[in-house]
Structures are given as C-alpha cells and as structure tokens.
Amino acid sequence: MVFSIESVSKEYRSGTKVLHALDSVSLKIEDGEIFGIIGKSGAGKSTLLRCLNLLERPTSGRILLGDTDLTALSPAQLRDTRKRIGVVFQHFNLLHSRSVAANIAFPLEVAGYSRADRRARVDELIELVGLEDRRDAFPSQLSGGQKQRVGIARALAASPDVLLCDEATSALDSDTTDSILDLLADLNRRLGVTIVLITHELNVVRRICHRAALIDQGRIVDEGTLTELVADP
Ligand code: ADP
Ligand code: ADP
Predict the structure, then answer these.
(1) Which terminus of the chain, N or C, has less C-beta within 10 A?
(2) Where's the ABC transporter domain (predicted)?
(3) 10 Å Cβ neighbour count for 127?
(4) How confident is the model over 172-194, as pLDDT tens digits?
(5) How far is the CA of 93 from the centre of ligand 2 (A)?
(6) Nearest Cα to Cα of residue 192 among 52, 34, 10
(7) What pTM does this model have?
C-alpha cells in the first residue's frame, strides 16, 4: 500500500461559514499502480493533493504513506517524508536561469548528494525521459512537452515512492499530452513507481490509469477500474 486515505475531511472557515472541501474521503492506492483522481473544477482535487503532498493537514481523518501517518509528523519527519513524494506540476515550475541538467540536479543538491553522484543520477534521468540532446538548454528554449519531461525527471530525481501529477498535461496540446502520458506509463512499468494523477480530463484517465476515483463536491462518488467506471449507469 502506498497511500491509505482514511475518512479525510478538510474544512475551510470564513466568518461563520464552513466549506467542506473534502468530506470523509477514503481511498487506498496500491504499490505500483497508476491511480487517477478525476473531478471537475471545485470538486476538491487540489485540496486532496495538498494533503497528500504535506502542504496541508486534514481537519480530520488520517493519511498513511506506507506505515507513516502523514497527519502526525514532526517538522523533521515532514522533511524526510517529503523526499518520498515527487510532484509534477501543471505549469512545470522550472528554474528559468538553470539548464535542463541543473533543474534536474536541484532536488539532489537539496538532498545533499555529492557532485559525482548528482552527475551520474542526472545522466540517468535525462536518458530516462529522452532529453539527451537538450541537456544544456534553458527552459525558455524548450517546448511544453520537453519542459514537462524535465519536470518529471526532477520529480523522480530522489527516487520517490510515489509520483503525484497535478494536472500535469492540462497545459499541453493533445498530441503532447499523449506522449507525456505514454512516458508516465513507461516509467511506471520500468521503475515500478506508483503514480497518482489528478485531472479534470477523462481521456487522461482512460489512457493510462489502472484504477480511478471520481470526486464531486468533496466526496468520492465512484471508484474502480476503468471498465467498472465506464460500465456504471
Ligand atoms: P479542484 O482542485 O477540484 O478545482 P479545490 O480543492 O481547489 O478543487 O476546491 C474545493 C473547494 O474548496 C472549492 O469550493 C474551493 O473554493 C474551496 N477551497 C479550496 N482551497 C481553499 C482555501 N484555501 N480557502 C478556502 N476555500 C478553499
Ligand atoms: P556541478 O557540480 O557540475 O555543477 P550539478 O549537480 O550542479 O553539477 O549539476 C548536474 C549537471 O548539471 C552537471 O552535469 C552540470 O554540468 C549541469 N549544470 C549545473 N549547473 C549548471 C548551470 N548553471 N548551467 C548549465 N549546466 C549546469
């Protein structure tokens, strides 16, 4: 089990109003799977992602990453646990003044890898995402798809247990979307990394997810394999 999400609720208060962004969400995401979380705008996807990502704590409920309870971590444990989670962003979030190689090396610098280890690991990652000929390019010189390949390589740099993809193809055209999704499926097969994809697009889920959950108004309203989801009335 990678994530065990147990009755997670998140409330936002403004004045006397309480907004239930997540309402008793329970999900189990297994080791090695590609799991989709799909819902329209305002459904609660980003709130759930921020809870998985250790940026926010649920109001109630627990989230386990393996055996670690993410809702009960000290600041030091939080730092260690973050390394187990890689995040791929919609708008790539690359460092503009750094080359492709240096962007990918950044999390390794933060994690304290030696220069030689960083170099070897960056070479491996660049090959993995197929950017051998763009190693020294800067983000402004890359296409959207190439930028997202850098984002994926950077997210994988410290060998996380799970890759969280936050609308990772929403800024890309449909051919580029397909090639990025195929890359993610390929990385899942080759590395065995678990992937959680958050998206509002059914075709994304359809192309690569083994299982998916549909979220609406902060609740999981359906969950299963793609066949099960599509077969539902
Ligand atoms: P999605 O990512 O599916 O579009 P969100 O998780 O962003 O949905 O939002 C779910 C609900 O929670 C929405 O009604 C949104 O307005 C509300 N919400 C999200 N973040 C906050 C916040 N920081 N403060 C108050 N309300 C929020
Ligand atoms: P180094 O210690 O050699 O700078 P880093 O771990 O910082 O290595 O970076 C990994 C790879 O990224 C290296 O192969 C390096 O050549 C390249 N690199 C690092 N910083 C830059 C930069 N500012 N511009 C271009 N390439 C860089």
Answers:
(1) C
(2) 3-233
(3) 11
(4) 999 999 999 999 999 999 999 99
(5) 18
(6) 34
(7) 0.88
* Residue 212 and residue 45 in contact, taking contact as beta carbons nearer than 8 Å: no
Please write the tens of the pLDDT for every residue from 11-54. 999 999 999 999 999 999 999 999 999 999 999 999 999 999 99
Distance from the first to the final alpha carbon of the chain: 30
> How far away, in angstroms, is 149 Cα from ligand 1 center?
28
3-state secondary structure of 194: strand
If you take atom 10 of ligand 1, which residue's CA is the nearest one? 44
Q: Is 19 in the pocket of ligand 1 (CB under 6 A)?
A: yes
Burial (Cβ within 10 Å: 0-12, 13-18, ≥19) of residue 75: exposed
Whether 81 and 69 have beta carbons less than 8 Å apart is answered as no
What gap in Å lies between CA 205 and CA 35, rounded to an integer? 8
Q: What is the dihedral of CA 100, 106, 157, 178, to 10 degrees?
A: -40
DSSP helix/strand/coil, 137:
coil
Residue ranges lining ligand 2, Cβ < 6 Å: 98-99, 101-102, 105, 115, 118-119, 122, 136
The reply to whether ligand 1 has any atom less than 6 angstroms from the CB of 129 is no
**C-alpha distances in Å from residue 25, one per residue of 48, 91, 185, 217, 230:** 9, 27, 26, 11, 21
> Which of 10, 46, 53, 214, when mutated, tests ligand 1's pocket best, judged by the most ligand atoms within 8 Å of its CB?
46
The SS3 assignment for 195 reads strand
